[in-house]
Amino acid sequence: MVLDCLWRFFENRVFNIPSSDRLFNQYRDRNAEVDLSNAPEIRRKNLFRYFSSFRKWPSVVLIGEAPGPWGCRFSGIPFTGERQLLMRALPFVGRQSSRDKPLLELKKRPPYVSNSARLFWGTMLVYHPRFFVWNCVPFHPYIGGSILSVRTPTSGEVLGYADILSEILSLLRPERTIAVGRKAQFSLEHLEIPCDYVRHPSQGGAIKFKDGIKQLFKML
């Protein structure tokens, strides 16, 4: 596998970090109300399939903010929903880690996909495998007591995982690094890593995200 060294890093440094009451490590832990019994293993295998989709080294790295509850939280892949993996809409496939019948009343039905995931791949699909995507905070930030809530990671959380992000970028050695959102930009600037900024596709940012990405990839 082209990204074998990066995968070994994830196995050694990322997957086994314990969840907290504010950050959920989707690669290590599960919640019986919404997750299958082997959900962490499924999510790790989904991420492995994403890594395996690279036949050459990616020259661009996109850094997002953190996993959302309907995307990476269940798929294991940033800006990706498990429904997209099952529909074979992307250059890699995967399995559903969520229960078909969750024990909570939720606004969405499994398999899950977020609007951000749809918007992201609607723009980025044509550029795969030239880019690799990850988040500056690798785990799902949630509000205590509400396991699938949405919360922007704090600056402290971003800085707390800066060393992991730094090592990932050291292994990837990209020609260009793109921050998707202000938290990602903050993290990269803290590490003194030159980056370009694009608007996050959520909350009405889809057009600015698409235009920003097109402009940047034209320069490569």
Short recap of the structure:
The protein is built from 9 helices and 6 strands. The chain is an alpha/beta fold and 220 residues long.
- Domain unit count: 1
Classify the oligomer: single chain
Which strands sit side by side, in order, in the main sheet? 3-2-5-6
Rounded to an integer, what's the Rg over CA atoms?
16 Å
Secondary structure category: alpha/beta
CATH superfamily: Uracil-DNA glycosylase-like domain
Helix and strand pattern? HEHEHHHEEHHEHEH
SS elements, strand count: 6
CATH hierarchy, class: Alpha Beta
CATH architecture classification? 3-Layer(aba) Sandwich
CA-based shape: globular
Protein name: Uracil-DNA glycosylase-like domain-containing protein
Pfam family, one: UDG
Domain Uracil-DNA glycosylase-like: 58-186
InterPro entries: Uracil-DNA_glycosylase-like, Uracil-DNA_glycosylase-like_sf
Write a structural description.
There is one protein chain. The chain has one domain: Uracil-DNA glycosylase-like domain (Uracil-DNA Glycosylase, subunit E), CATH 3.40.470.10. By secondary structure, it is α/β, with parallel strands linked by helices. The strands form 2 sheets. It has a 4-stranded parallel sheet, sandwiched between helices. It is built from 9 helices and 6 strands; from the N terminus they run H-E-H-E-H-H-H-E-E-H-H-E-H-E-H. Helices cover 37% and strands 10% of the residues. This is Uracil-DNA glycosylase-like domain-containing protein. It holds the Pfam family UDG. It comes from candidate division WOR_3 bacterium SM23_42.
